[in-house]
Amino acid sequence: MARYPVLRGLYELEKTIGCGGFAKVKLATHILTGEKVAIKIMEKRSLGENLHRVRVELDALQSLSHRHISQLYQVLETESHFFLVVEYCSGGELFDHIVEKNRLNEKEARAAFRQILSAVSYLHSLGFVHRDLKPENVLLDKDLNMKLIDFGLCAKPSGGLAGFLYTSCGSPTYAAPELVLGKKYLGHEVDVWSMGVLLYALLCGFLPFDDDKIDTLYKKILDGKYEEPTWLTAESKRLIRSMLQTDPKKRIKVDELLSHPWVMRGFREPIPVNYSCNMKEYDSQCVNLLARHKNISPEEMWEQLNKWKYDYNTATYFLLLNRRRRGLPVRIFGPGATPFRNYRNNLPLATPIDSQKVDRGNELDSIRSFTTPIKRPLVDDSTPMIPDKRERTALTPVNEEWSTVNSSVSHAPVTRHQKNVYQVSKTPAKAPEPPISAPNGKKRLAKRLHSPGPDESPASPRKFLNV
Fold first, then answer.
1. Which of 216, 282, 329, 467 has a 20 to 30 A CA-CA distance from 36?
2. Is residue 280 annotated as involved in ligand binding?
3. Residues with catalytic roles
């Protein structure tokens, strides 16, 4: 924490949970609420000419509020760093989940794909395109719901979705043919191609177009031919083909995907176009509690919040509202309150020390820990206490409403991956090394490091990102 004084008193930094070319992500505790968050830390000097991409990402994240998009809570900027406080997703990357399972069955893949499609459809409805859709940019929360992340390469064409883009960016193995050729393109058509590659990876465990040589990879993409494993159903093959059309005009549209028979199977209704979870709505319970803490009137509190500065007040309100929507009691800690993890331990206010059991070298520390009174947080007791644990079989279709899981419904035993998901905050599970090749000789899914590309249209396909 000493390295980042701007976070002092606001967040308690913990371990590093992610690292990329320009940023690292730290797990942290929001001190006022005791909630876990992730903090994306970017050094301006290392960003160089890509500094403007942070502004683009912030513009997008401050406009988005969707249950399958990682929520932005707070933005802090210093002379040397950006700090983006975002929703913590303890389930890790979808990529690692695929690697661990080798491939997902159709029911699991459909549940994951529906949620990703819901997020992308919402993104497009606001005029944004993602341009870097892949399993590494989809996280799982503790309930194994998909959360789309990494909007550094997103764009909002000035002419809306019908406006052309020129920057070749993203990951080559997920790139549409028009990107490879360096032509102007429509962002929403590129996103559909990437989702087709992503769905193929979910169902097959390897990529439709892959090669160690970039020239060969591009030829495969431009040719548009790929293997269709025998385990794919006829309906799955048809859906993937409709997304991986080399001619973007023949490619299926997002609106058509929402009600596609494969996507609809097992579900009563198509995916809603606008599936937002408005985090900027007025909630009297959360506003009143925060006003009590600040010792001001609820009206004054809401006037401050309603400016949506994405400061500490915004973060606190969003975290309280998120707890309330999950059916948990909303509470904040007053000045000097003990962190929430100690409050949950229900330690006594004062306990006599048995001198026979105290190690003499640690006696002073023991006396302090047992005699310091624990200050209880401010709690709104009108909300019933509901355990904050909801087990589901990995990637099964979920009830996409703000409601708690019905405890009377029987669930399959928790799989090894689920146990890792719930324990990740204590002992993160390391995904097993993927086999070199699949039974059919295809290479298993593998990560490819990349960094943002140039803004100008590339002179040739070789100026593609990652190359």
1. 282
2. no
3. 132
Helix axes of 312-325 and 284-294: crossing angle, nearest 10 degrees: 140
Q: Is 164 helix (H, G, I), strand (E, B) or coil?
A: strand
Q: Closest by alpha carbon to 135, among 448, 399, 465, 406?
A: 448
403, pLDDT greater than 60: no
Instruction: State the number of CA atoms in the 13 A half-sphere of 134 facing the CB.
Output: 22
- 142 Cβ neighbours under 8 A, 6+ residues apart: 89, 90, 91, 390, 421, 422
Q: Which residues of 271-300 are buried (b: 16+ CB within 10 A; e: fewer)?
A: beeebeeebeeebeebbbbbbebeeeeeee
Whether pTM > 0.85 for this model: the answer is: no
Question: CA–CA separation, 295 vs 216, rounded Å?
Answer: 65
Of the candidates 82, 96, 79, 91, the one whose C-alpha atom is nearest the C-alpha of residue 36 is 91
Q: Counting beta carbons within 10 angstroms of the beta carbon of residue 52, is it exposed (0 to 12), middle (13 to 18) or buried (19 or more)?
A: exposed
Nearest alpha carbon to residue 146 among 66, 243, 62: 66
| CA 465/CA 153 separation, integer angstroms | 11
DSSP class of 443 = B
- Gap between the Cα atoms of 44 and 19, Å rounded: 16
Task: Specify the residue for token string 């669930």.
Answer: 411
Closest of 72, 413, 119, 403 to residue 258, by C-alpha: 119
Rounded CA separation 457/422 (Å): 44
* Phi–psi pair at 13, nearest 5 degrees: -70, 145
Say whether 28 sits in a helix, a strand or coil: strand
Flag whether pLDDT at 86 surpasses 50.
yes
Distance spanning both ends of the chain, measured CA to CA: 36
For residue 213, is pLDDT > 50? Answer: yes
Contacts with 145 (C-beta within 8 Å, 6 or more apart), sequence order: 67, 68, 115, 398
**Residue closest to 24 by CA, chosen among 83, 64, 73, 76:** 83
Residue 371: band (very low, low, confident or very high) from pLDDT cuts 50, 70, 90: very low
